Predict the structure.
Amino acid sequence: MSQFTKPTDENDVSDLIRKVGEVNASLEIVGGGTQRQIGRPTQNAVIMSTEMLRGVTLYEPTELVISALAGTPLATIETELGKQNQQLAFEPVKLGNIFNGGARASGDAQAPQPTVGSVFATNSSGPRRVYAGAARDHLLGIRAVNGRGEIFKSGGRVMKNVTGYDLCKVMAGSWGTLSALTEVTMKVLPKPEETGTLVICGLTDEMANEVLCAAMSTPFEVSGCVHMQKGMATRLDHHSLGGVDSALAVVMGDSITALRVENISSSVAYRMSQLRRRFGAFGDILELDNTSSLTFWNKLQNLEFLQVGDGAVWRISTAPKSGHRVVRMISEFMPCHATYDWSGGLIWLELPEAANDGGAAEIRRVVATVGGHATLIRATPAVRGAVDVFQPLEKGLMRLSRDIKSTYDPHGVLNPGRMYADF
Amino acid sequence: MSAIELIEADPVVVARRHEIVIALTERVGPGCIISDEDGRRAFDTDAFTAYRRMPLAVVLPTTTKEVSDVLAYCYEHGVRVIPRGAGTSLCGGALPAEDAIVIGVSKMNQVLDINFDNRTARVQTGITNLGISNAVAGDRYFYAPDPSSQLACTLAGNLGMNSGGAHCLKYGVTSNNVLGMKIVLMTGEVIDIGGDELDAPGYDFLGMIIGAEGQFGIATEATVRILKMAEGARPVLLGFDSAEQAGACVSAIIAAGIIPVAIEYMDRPAIKVCEAYAKAGYPLDVEAMLIVEVEGAEQEIEHLLKRITDIVDTFNPKVVRTSQSDEESAAIWKGRKAAFGAVGQIADYLCMDGTIPLSTLPRVLAGISSICKSYGFQVANIFHAGDGNLHPLILYNANEPGELERAEACGADILKLCVEVGGCLTGEHGVGIEKRDLMTVQFSAVDLAQQMRLKDVFDPSWLLNPGKVFPLDLSQAA
């Protein structure tokens, strides 16, 4: 049974990490706990919760910057930003939603929420990544404690900063294996005045891929570019989509391809008309107004097209043009449901009948052929303990990764084994 | 005698020069090596010209394999290596050492592949920044980061310094626009990272290496994002009686939810020099000028500019002039982009590169003015106002003994002020040798140790681009 502790400040975090290191034990870093089921299953003597490290420490709306302690709930940040009509432009996806016991499964508003630290530790980026960049692109500064128990900082609170090495990026997507984040400083952006969405119904994956790539090659700053196979599209609760209820209800039995534009109202109207002109002939068209658009993209950010449960879910990153090819090749081996985000370059793949390895062998073989990488986001602990959850790296990169881990965390205190089996 | 201490050459390595040149020639052929004194002199400095050191030899490889062979030799024989793009660094990032060889990537300048569906271009890193945009401009695409030196600087240098530019307020800097790299480590090992996909697996190696000032490896190829050009773009020129008004106006535009593609600020001395040089029609009777540019279709531009000028009107501007033609837009930008060259025609200058929180602009400008006055120097300020990146140009006379040292001391005081108000030492030029000794102003010993450990991972013997980024007493003890 692990010991559960809640340090109250970064000095506490430092003391704790030192102490755990001194007895050659290890520690799991937990924010809201929503993503604990992702990664290789591990056993640690101590569970360190960041929940006492909470609060916005700086917010300057006109400088487009906000800082918060790492355990601050993401929802708190979003609320604060919302008061100034601003947002995190990279639109972090709520991965925790797809697990049994997650906020969506329990329907409980009090259910655990992801923390802002976890957003960066997992480099969680949603549909707008394709236009506005990933979480790592919006991380301006950090304070953190390494595995030696040393408190360090990198970056700062200004938008442009090349002073010294960029240790912020090192932290982004490191899943708590290198240091414990204690404070993060983020770039924020204004919320768009208006959002419009063009939905094209009934496209095959291949046709949709053409549309997605072509849409991103227009000058209209398409900021969301997804295709959902019909099995997944039907899971969006279309009744909550506002003014287009009945129309969507009709088409929700089909695949949907959605393109988003955001800007001042007059621009959105213009850009929607241009997109309709270019892509209107591909299939039945629906236009979502501002309210419906916000609801729709929020559902995507919440991954509502994925079923809650414990079946295998993969996140595959590939060249946008190759997305449908990857899925077609995998579907030759096993049934799957796919949603393509990022213009086709990000695939959320559900495998209802995956083999004992969660489909790892076939998926990794396909990805090796086409290019890209695959992460097993959801599977039972047994499966996650048996296969590589994160994409195995080429020899040189794996060696560098191991060396980086050992210089940040020489005693293997922080989340050991979560990303890779041996460090 | 200059103020910045340079690393001492190892006489043993210097004495082996002949043998090293022969070994390198065997690896790249005589056409790719420069060993005569006149030839080497062309590489003895970069755009931080006050400092010069003659390298042992200059190697200009044509393939990744050659880069790898040369690095493997240098690793085995303990020879230091200075990676070089076009040598446009303003902070001595490509300054050689007398016991080091320069590896320049300028011959590796080809576009390898363009994929409009994936919106990527695979290029060799010796290509110029503008060369990438030119290669895809026919299809109305561009590569977004646009440093002022974009005509000359290479992608390799941009990767080293994580270069920005006037338009990065909207489009981001180099690290936000690179998806893949082929990098040669000091041992000669070749590592491929990322590709056409929008993220790479595992730790963020691209993020680590971009901006590491060439100290982790030499990038020979990269996959960069290319973006579709906007349908059009147009700047508006704004003139104000004070820095306070101009700064407050920028804040108000952003507070209204408008992120223009660029917001450039110039003070009176900068306006005067640039106008004399470029005849851009800049107002000469204002204390502060802003160039605010928006993009989109014609009707979108008009709508956005109307919103911006409505906001601007509440700040009592002296001049509001919207560009009426492509020629006028080009002239407005020509003046700004020529700023460094224009100032260079009237005096020697040191270009500072701090970043500050926008709200501190009036305080910082007043501080800069009084610092420069106390040293007896004139200063012109150019500022990427949207992202807080400030370029004070300290005007001095290099022929006057002692002036360079005083100008450097003046610059150091300015950068300390930037850190003091919550900013940083360098926004886009890099640390190089210039700001190396100021790193302790911004970072604690633990912060710096954490950075240097990463250097240990990539280059344990510290042979790559030595004597830069960290104070010498720290890096030489490493």
Summary: Chain A touches chain B through 81 residues (CB under 8 Å). Residues 219 and 406 of chain A are 45 Å apart (CA to CA). The longest strand of chain A covers residues 179-187. Residues 194-301 of chain A form a domain with the Alpha-Beta Plaits fold (CATH 3.30.70.2190).
